[in-house]
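Teaching assistant's notes for section 4

Start the section by putting this record on the projector. Ask students to predict, before seeing the second block, whether Jacalin-type lectin domain-containing protein will look compact or extended. Collect guesses on the board.
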Amino acid sequence: MASHANSMHKLIKLPATGSSSSYGVTAWDQQGETHVCQIFVSYTAANLRSRISARINGLQFQYVKGNHSFTYSDMSNVFGQLSGTRFHAVKLDYPREYLTCVTIYGNATGIALKTNLGKTHGPFGNVGDPTACFCLGDENQFGGFHGAADSWGICSYPA
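Reveal the predicted structure now:
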């Protein structure tokens, strides 16, 4: 198992990708939240008849705190709303499994997640051409998420 990111490495905040029109949108920052054990994704599927576009409605993260026991896990705030017509709970086999790649589509309207165990979760929401692909290699370098409703990025602890 690869060693986990620690405070000896400097955190790098990779830029958020998506729309640059975040005026008046509340930004969020989960920087330093490295022990992700679950990601909750609320999204809406496309419906051509009612002209609804596929999109991510909200994200929420669960992190392991303290002595790495699920007894001490914390939930992040909900980023967006868990109001989509579809919902997925992406559960990682923590601490054995961790994020190695996050792909973002459109103006943060779709997301796919890949882990060190070769599992791909998603894509969820609107998936066209990816606007960003944050691939971190085989070691656990994930350092948290940040962004706003229409732009997302990640943080990394380089190995």
